[in-house]
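Changelog entry: the HupE/UreJ family protein record was regenerated in this release. Current contents:
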Amino acid sequence: MSRRATRSVLARTGFAATGYVWLLLLTVVAVMLSSKAASAHEVRPAYLSIQEVAPNEFSVLFKTPMQGNARLALTALFSGGIETVTPIVSRPTGDAMVQTWRTRTREPMAGQRVLVDGLQNTMTDALVRVMFANGNTWTARLTPSEPSAVIPASQSAWAVFVTYVRQGIEHIIFGFDHLLFVTGLMLIVRGWSKLVKAVTAFTVAHSITLTCATLGWMTLPSRPVEALIAISIVMVAAEVVRMERGQLSLAIVRPWTVAFAFGLLHGFGFAGALSELGLPQGDIPLALLAFNIGVEVGQLAFIAVTLIAVYSIRQLVNIQRQAIVASAYAIGIVAAFWSVERLDAMLQ
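Regenerated structure tokens:
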């Protein structure tokens, strides 16, 4: 069937472009709202830190995501003989439970298998970091399908790099607020050159604040940052509507400037996620670079998939102006919901 014939069939069956895109966006909105409400805590990783403080004696910190007032049912287990020498102290931090204690090993820690029991029943991962007294460190990412790993005596730089690249990719994939901002930016920007400038500005900006915040040079409280990120999405969605009405603004004429400004804000959000993961003390620059690369890979992959999807739809139907306006309103509604939710959490 020719393209013209396909369009004719679609028109006769009432399959208008606006209706198609609007239905798709309503589905996306429903998924995002439900996922944020039901499983936002599930996608945050757990974190297990094991530091040798004396021969065969280790200080343990175990951070697990909270679901309401209860933490995920996760337990750190070791294959060798482990003796707990201090009581386990638990303290909630708002969205996670932090437990600390000291253990003594009857067998060397290197060579033991560490298991995060219960991880296989969740949708989250666990980052494990072991620091030996001789300066050697080991970092690994455990998943529901592979909840255990053998602790080696040391770890290569390549293994650290791969671990944090994966964490960066996963963070942006599940970072719906960041992806909605990028989507709104793509609705404003018309033309490849402007899109490249805007995406580059956003990347450079959030890389700056991610680095500064991670290294402790500049920090902001996480809850106000998350609220401002949601508000930034509302503002971008409003700019899309303004552009479709034929109005002009700085965001419409020079979108890269707005992308850079808001990118600085989003970088603090990325830094908050990275601080939850923790960084290997001996490889902080490498882990920071790897996480940033992972974020960019995930972001570029999202942009590529979105552009391919839009191009494919345009081969079948004409995407009308009303569909773009509907997309902006859908993005704005979701972001407004997040804004109210996060402002309320900030004020509590």
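Residues 284-316 form the longest helix (33 residues).
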